[in-house]
Amino acid sequence: MRDSAAADKRVEAxxxxxxxxxxxxxxxxxxxxxxxxxxxxxxxxARVNQVTRVLFSRCPTPQDILALSQEELEEMVRPTGFxxxxxxxxxxxxxxxxxRYGGRVPGTLEEFVRLPGVGRKxxxxxxxxxxxxxxxxxxxxxxxxxxxxLGLSSAKTPEKIEADLMQLLPREDWTWFxxxxxxxxxxxxxxxKPDCQAxxxxxxxxxxxxx
Length: 211
Ligand code: SF4
Fold this sequence. Notes:
It contains 11 helices and no strands.
């Protein structure tokens, strides 16, 4: 069973380390963040930001993206990798936004997860960061790894990990918490070699490999 007092200490330490944690994707509105998150699979945020700067200057709306040919869109997103599938996913999502929501991004998680190719992780990330609607905790590979190492969840699936994490802090902190775990996973608690010596969470972390 999770020790909630110990978990609180880890959450508070994370808050001191990353008080204003935000995403590293650059966006001006929910639509841009949604497309950026789709493109970010298996790609760095820096690379996605390079691609979207060009993409959104040419195509600021879903309708503009749909006006591109498949080949044009593939060429534009090519640097993010898996470009054929990503171009298809972006196009399908834009089509649904236009058909069902008049080109706007919906405002609830329930509507969001009905968009093609959009799961709870993307929905929670976009809703929380672009709309200030905190309906879940986005569990990506970093959130999964860091929360497990910190002993905040022993679950294996993103859904169960999310449910464990949601109990740890109030709803208004859910988006911050996910962002903070992502930053910590990228900068310190890396997959292959966590830098436990330099980690501000080490005093409260049960991870057995810390030096
Ligand atoms: S002490 Fe090590 S395992 Fe624990 S959070 Fe920090 S880097 Fe990760």
